[in-house]
Amino acid sequence: MTDLTRLSLADARKGLKDKSFTALELTDAYIGAIEAANPSLNAYVATTPEQARDMARASDTRLSQGQGGALEGIPLGIKDLFATKGVHTQAASHILDGFKPEYESTVTANLWRDGAVMLGKLNMDEFAMGSSNETSYYGPVISPFRAEGSNANLVPGGSSGGSAAAVAAWLCAGATATDTGGSIRQPAAFTGTVGIKPTYGRCSRWGTVAFASSLDQAGPIARTVEDAAILMTSMSGFDAKDSTSVDIPVPDFAAAVERGVKGLTIGVPKEYRMDGMPAEIEKLWAEGLEWLKAEGATVKDISLPHTKYALPAYYIVAPAEASSNLARYDGVKYGLRVSGKDITDMYELTRAKGFGREVKRRIMIGTYVLSAGYFDAYYVKAQKVRTLIKKDFEDAFNAGVDAILTPATPSAAFGIGDEALASDPVAMYLNDIFTVTVNMAGLPGIAVPAGKDGQGLPLGLQLIGKPFDEETLFAAARVIEKSAGGDFAPKQWW
Amino acid sequence: MSVDAATVKRIGRLARIRIEEEEVAAYQTELNAILGFVEQLGEVDVAGVEAMTSVTPMTLRRREDVVSDGNYPEKIVGNAPLTEDNFFMVPKVVE
Hints:
The complex is a heterodimer. Chain A has a domain at 4-259: Amidase signature (AS) enzymes, CATH 3.90.1300.10. The longest helix of chain A is centred in the C-terminal third of the chain and has 24 residues, at 375-398. In chain A, the strands form two sheets. In chain A, strands 4-6-5-10-11-9-7-8 form an eight-stranded mixed beta sheet, with helices on both faces. In chain A, strands 1-3-2 form a three-stranded mixed beta sheet, sandwiched between helices. Chain A is built from 16 helices and eleven strands. Chain A has helices at 9-17, 23-41, 49-64, 106-113, 161-168, 185-190, 225-235, 279-294, 310-325, 343-354, 357-369, 375-398, 419-423, 425-429, 436-441, 470-484; strands spanning 44-47, 75-79, 117-122, 175-179, 194-197, 217-222, 265-269, 298-302, 403-407, 445-452, 458-465. Chain A is globular and about 65 Å long. By secondary structure, chain A is of the alpha/beta class. Chain B has a domain at 5-42: Histone, subunit A, CATH 1.10.20. Chain B has three helices and two strands, in the order αααββ. The chains are: A alpha/beta, B mainly alpha. The interface between A and B is large, with 74 and 52 residues.
């Protein structure tokens, strides 16, 4: 039998329906692949093989009766940020030591409702704060990709680095991920996978460990645009338990994938043409536009004048919200406790030991910008800038633009332990320069593999859409996927 | 705006994160790098601009003011480091 892990999610679903193999066989193939690869890649922080086999057997029963949901028998990896009942849920942090929730997040509950099988929990940057998956308490994820002729370990991107690496390395058929400033799209671009951050409000945030609540959105990472669309449909939907969940129907996103781009207007924002942008990124972007034009789209130059202010505004808004959200980790209700001479001492020692350096840094920044005397100068100002960023996009869409094409990241994946990035926090933050605007404006954005750099590492393009028009993004991303025609799979070394 | 060593310690206390004396200088450098980076927002004219409160045009939904959940204290304290009779246990706070 061919290696079942190499099948796309869509093909695996077809194979299950046609009874070419069983859900248990498919699940066992993934469990074996994880056991072999995880010591090298560190993509999973916890595996649940027995639970996976039980879920697969239940799927096989339903499939044999001609029943089953949209994801029946499909093995998935779940980012450690999603609460999974009775299973390791720690946001890859020490402070949630031993936490096993009594409840299930809405997004994962939706996946199990549709028949998916859980393989385990995926590594990530601690509390989703990072762009390289190096801030995890469980150690960095190693990318399945290496530069040609090199054995040096590269980062898979972050914060959903475990999700991206596991999908690219055939350790799950698809994965859940989350995106607060680029945490789905940047790792997808680094690993030759497809990742979509839907419109804010499309997926329920209930049961997902909060980082910055006004920016956080869940979404899938998958090996093809079609697979991402299938997962997106199951993950989405109104949830009364999230007050910002939007009560509108969920389209069958997969039905939009082959819709094409004929007649669409694609915006090209001049502000994304950064000084010092590598020529290969420039070339990739131009190629992407040519592919869309060749399929009948019109390309239009646009201006999003406040682009350069999105990242600084983000580094006020996101830490401010994080400092509030992470106040709950105090050694009382769950996770780690370090004893102290009194309760304040216990709080301070618990939080000093339980949080990693990047998380502490962001809590401190957030605390500072929200403190008396600085609130207006920092937080209120940033929220005003955010209004302007959103208006830039609204103006472009009102002028007839259907979607916007940009590079996904300023470079391909970099090395583990990059010294220049480690010594300057702002240098690492610049990884999200093309993605963070989308979170600030609450829009949907998809990253799709489009080419490779000079060392054979994947590069991605990003499409940004109108609110709740993920369908156009899937259709346009599919055109890029088809036109790029490349094989974005890693060469297996692990 | 930049922070001095005393401010770093004060932020640590407000955030309930113990900052050891030997960590202060490194935090000060890092926080000032980030604050220096966000400084550029000073260039943006925001006169007459409303601060964003909701990224999607919506009013927060309200639900009926009724008890809709609960009655499982053992689950609520199930993950706590120290409990007794379904209460969270903490160091003495009242003399």
